[in-house]
């Protein structure tokens, strides 16, 4: 027997052609990278769904939410995807405008979202509150609102709204709190912004290195450190202004060749089985799970009194202007 | 007779290579442009992005080049234990994933880094590097070693006999510089400057992370925004066009300034400098120590963190991701070598405007935005074949195109030297084809070819631009894997993976570079 050359191994794994099991229908779901990672929800979701669907569930990871949408746009009707899972509410209007998605046709159950959900095309599977995360051992005076943050000398690191969902979320957050005054608030906040990174990872890494007192992330971030690392030094600052929400959704593509299977997946997505995988793999709140069923550690997280959220239409309407304000304020 | 047919094959192969480069660069941008209605012109923010891009790229390139000249000379004329290690380490910063290098740099220069901690300890203020200077600092960190390595190659290309002769003629160091080294620099520097300038121009994550905010925006971010945020393909294509235009301009100016040099033939022996004054030696050594500290400290932080990470958290997917990356890098490197050898051999025979034109096109790969290239290829391939199924060939070809400018930079002078020193010998022996290549050309070319292949391998090892659009589920390469680990809060594991990436890229680079040098200095 000859040893298989290294490059052949690499070649075969790179091509990674899906196994063509005879007769088994295949459902292809496009999602973002971290969903399919070995530590993400993907592997467990795949196992659980394949146990009930008599099908082959193929999860394909494509960078992030924005990349996901641009990918299906590029592929158009020729896409292999049956379902797109992982865009958020700021992208929904743009996604609908492509006419690539069809209504899910499911009766939306009573969801465990802080806001009402009515959308005939997209169904939410998880959500989270944006928040500034800090290290309790490093920051003693924690601001409790944007006013307090601006008045303090607390340094922050944030993400660029053009390349990052949390970055865009912060844009929406200030807009939701301050409306027309958002531009002035950004200008006042600008000196405290240490830097603006391309993505969440860079910002969070820099925060952990001590480059800034706080980082824009989620209220659920401390749960990771607590549960996975047994480290209770991280906390999210609760703002009395309320916290802007991110809601992550999935939708069915019009070009799907497996419409029934796609419906079955969307229904499965809201089942307790799928939903209970989410908290400790995606580190977000499940969209349809009794709060009592959340894993231990989630009870230590802050629960903002006011949930701020723009409807997809409103988000689309304010997006461009809010970005311009942000650019102008931080380019001074 | 055989000699008459050879250029035809060469011309064909060279033209094919050139067309491939054009297709991957301008072609992909064109595909984007045609896929959408032409939209708006350059916005105000695009202009400011353009301005910042030019300023930071010029500063980074000038500083890298100005420091690299004395550093390369010091490395060539001083022998000290560990010199070979230092030469290999010079390849390291360049091949780190940006995010890892940035965190390493911040561990030294950041607000909680070594320098600031030291300054606070003696009662001084901490430093704040965010802004233009942070960006330039990072770019010098990436590119100073690259220019230094290119110049070291240049110095090595001056036949040792020339230095011996100069010594016998009792040249002063100034004379030596003017007659020998200056000539070599005029040949190598414009190209090296162009490389760094273009690399900094397309840099994106560095500018964002260290720039301190949207005032430090590069054109590349504007392209990303057009593609992802606005989904304005035509605008992205136009910005890519501006980027290509700038690239051609810079490359053309550099070529105009560069000089063909004929050092004559030598036996290819090593250079020995005997008459260095002690003040020169002191200066050389100080410079080497300073450079090693500047480049080595952030790397050391990456290594220390990596070892801690590997001990603490070793994810299962790391092994397969590493193997996959090594496979891609090896294939890309070999494709790139073939590509570069053919093109360099062909270019070497061209003269005048055609040579300029062809060489400028060779540079385009570096000015291409990976996003535009990836998206354009996607648009071109998607109607024909599933982009997933061709991810490996596409990645290898793209990496070859991207690393072509580096390989050309190193191989072209070698080909020129080969023609001048051994061309007549080959002709008089009537040798041609394979035997001529094997017996005459290869011994001269193997050192630069080894270096170029090592660079190409290391480059594609660290690449994540284009493959992101094509890589299917769990087919991720090591750099993508590092990003996913970081995206899942697993910073320690990511640091461990970064160390694996650093070591395996360096090992690849070392293997090829060493392979090229082995027995070559006879």
Summarize the structure.
The complex is a heterodimer of chains A (332) and B (522). Chain A is α/β, with parallel strands linked by helices and 332 residues long.
CATH superfamily of the largest domain in chain A: Periplasmic binding protein-like II
What about the largest sheet of chain B? none
What would the principal axes of the Cα set say about the shape of chain B?
Answer: globular
Computed Rg of chain B: 23 Å
CATH architecture of chain B: Orthogonal Bundle
Describe the model:
The complex is a heterodimer of chains A (332) and B (522). By secondary structure, chain A is of the alpha/beta class. Chain A has two domains: 24-127 and 246-298, Periplasmic binding protein-like II (D-Maltodextrin-Binding Protein, domain 2, 3-Layer(aba) Sandwich); 129-245 and 304-330, Periplasmic binding protein-like II (D-Maltodextrin-Binding Protein, domain 2), CATH 3.40.190. Chain A is built from 14 helices and twelve strands. Chain A has helices at 6-15, 33-36, 42-53, 65-75, 89-97, 146-151, 165-178, 182-189, 200-208, 221-229, 259-269, 272-275, 279-282, 312-330, and strands spanning 26-31, 56-61, 83-88, 101-102, 122-135, 156-159, 193-197, 214-218, 234-237, 243-253, 285-286, 307-308. In chain A, strands 1, 2, 3, 4, 5, 6, 7, 8, 9, 10, 11 and 12 form a twelve-stranded mixed β-sheet that branches. In chain A, helix 5 (89-97) packs across helix 14, helix 7 crosses helix 14 and helix 8 packs across helix 14. The radius of gyration of chain A is 21 Å and the shape is globular. Chain A starts with 5 loop residues before the first helix and ends with a helix. In chain B, 79% of the residues lie in helices and 0% in strands. Chain B is built from 21 helices and no strands. Chain B is an all-alpha fold and 522 residues long. Chain B is globular. Chain B has one domain: MetI-like fold (Orthogonal Bundle). The longest helix of chain B has 39 residues, at 391-429. At the A-B interface, helix 1, helix 2, strand 2, helix 4 and strand 7 of A face helix 5, helix 10, helix 11, helix 14 and helix 16 of B.
């Amino acid at each position: 027997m000859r040893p298989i050359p290294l490059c052949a191994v690499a070649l075969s794994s790179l091509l990674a052609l899906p196994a063509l099991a005879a007769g088994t229908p295949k459902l292809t779901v496009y999602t973002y990278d971290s969903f399919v990672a070995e530590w993400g929800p993907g592997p467990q979701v795949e196992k659980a769904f394949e146990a009930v669907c008599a099908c082959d569930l193929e999860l394909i990871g494509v960078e992030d939410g924005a990349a996901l949408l641009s990918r299906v746009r590029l592929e158009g009707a020729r896409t292999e995807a049956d379902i797109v899972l992982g865009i958020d509410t700021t992208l929904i209007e743009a996604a609908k405008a492509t006419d690539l998605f069809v209504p899910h046709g499911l009766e939306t159950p009573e969801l465990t979202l802080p806001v009402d959900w009515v959308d005939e095309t997209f169904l939410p599977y998880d959500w989270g509150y944006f928040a500034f995360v800090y290290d309790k051992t490093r920051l003693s005076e924690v601001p409790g609102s944007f006013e307090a943050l601006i008045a303090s000398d607390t340094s922050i690191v944030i993400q660029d709204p053009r390349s990052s969902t949390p970055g865009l979320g912060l844009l929406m957050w200030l807009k939701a709190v301050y409306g027309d005054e958002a531009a002035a608030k950004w200008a006042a906040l600008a000196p405290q912004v240490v830097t603006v990174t391309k993505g969440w990872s860079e910002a969070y890494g820099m925060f952990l290195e001590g480059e800034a007192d706080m980082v824009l992330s989620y209220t659920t971030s401390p749960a990771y450190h607590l549960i996975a690392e047994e480290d209770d030094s991280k906390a999210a600052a609760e703002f009395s202004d309320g916290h802007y929400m991110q809601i992550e959704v999935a939708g069915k593509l019009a070009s799907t060749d497996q419409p029934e299977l796609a419906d079955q997946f969307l229904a499965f997505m809201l089942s307790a089985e799928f939903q209970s995988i989410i908290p400790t793999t995606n580190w977000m709140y499940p969209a349809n799970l009794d709060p009592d069923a959340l894993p231990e550690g989630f009870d230590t997280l802050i629960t903002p009194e006011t949930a701020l959220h723009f409807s997809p239409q409103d988000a689309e309407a304010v997006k461009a202007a809010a970005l311009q304000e942000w650019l102008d304020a931080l380019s001074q | 007779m055989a000699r008459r047919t050879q250029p035809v094959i060469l011309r064909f192969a060279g033209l094919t290579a050139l067309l491939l480069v054009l297709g991957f660069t301008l072609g992909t941008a064109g595909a984007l442009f045609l896929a959408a209605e032409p939209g708006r012109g350059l916005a105000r923010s695009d202009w400011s992005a353009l301005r910042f891009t030019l300023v930071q790229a010029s500063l980074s390139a000038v500083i890298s080049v100005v420091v690299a000249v004395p550093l390369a000379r010091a490395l060539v004329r001083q022998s000290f234990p560990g010199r070979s290690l230092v030469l290999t380490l010079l390849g390291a910063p360049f091949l780190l994933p940006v995010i890892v290098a940035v965190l390493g740099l911040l561990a030294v220069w950041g607000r909680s880094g070594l320098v600031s901690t030291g300054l606070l300890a003696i009662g001084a203020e901490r430093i704040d590097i965010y802004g233009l200077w942070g960006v330039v600092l990072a770019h010098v960190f990436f590119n100073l070693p690259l220019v230094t390595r290119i110049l070291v190659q240049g110095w090595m290309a001056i036949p040792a006999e020339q230095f011996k002769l100069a010594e016998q003629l009792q040249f002063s160091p100034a004379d030596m510089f003017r007659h020998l080294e200056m000539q070599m620099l005029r040949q190598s520097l414009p190209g090296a400057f162009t490389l760094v300038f273009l690399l900094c121009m397309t840099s994106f994550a560095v500018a964002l992370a260290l720039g301190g905010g949207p005032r430090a925006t590069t054109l590349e971010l504007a392209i990303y925004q057009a593609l992802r945020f606005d989904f304005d393909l035509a605008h992205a294509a136009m910005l890519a066009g501006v980027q290509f235009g700038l690239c051609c301009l810079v490359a053309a100016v550099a070529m105009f300034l560069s000089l063909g040099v004929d050092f004559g033939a030598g036996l290819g022996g090593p250079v020995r400098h005997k008459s260095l004054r002690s003040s020169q030696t002191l200066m050389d050594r100080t410079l080497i120590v300073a450079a090693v500290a500047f480049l080595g400290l952030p790397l050391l932080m990456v290594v220390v963190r990596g070892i801690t990470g590997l001990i603490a958290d070793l994810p299962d997917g790391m092994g397969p991701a590493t193997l996959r990356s090594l496979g891609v890098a090896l294939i890309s490197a070999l494709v790139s070598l073939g590509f570069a050898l053919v093109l360099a051999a062909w270019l070497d025979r061209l003269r005048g405007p055609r040579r300029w034109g062809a060489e400028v096109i060779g540079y385009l790969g570096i000015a291409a935005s990976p996003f535009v290239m990836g998206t354009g290829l996607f648009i071109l391939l998607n109607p024909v074949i599933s982009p997933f199924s061709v991810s490996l060939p596409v990645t290898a070809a793209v990496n070859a195109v991207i690393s072509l400018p580096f390989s050309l930079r190193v191989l072209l002078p070698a080909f020129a030297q080969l023609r001048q020193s051994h061309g007549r010998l080959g002709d008089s022996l009537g040798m041609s084809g394979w035997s001529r290549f094997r017996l005459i050309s290869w011994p001269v070319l193997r050192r630069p070819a080894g270096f170029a292949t090592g660079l190409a391998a290391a480059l594609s090892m660290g690449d994540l631009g284009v493959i992101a659009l094509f890589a299917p589920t769990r087919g991720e390469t090591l750099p993508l894997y590092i990003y996913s680990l970081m995206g899942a809060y697993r910073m320690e594991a990511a640091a461990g993976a970064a160390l694996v990436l650093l070591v395996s890229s360096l090992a690849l680079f070392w293997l090829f570079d060493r392979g090229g040098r082995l027995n070559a200095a006879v």
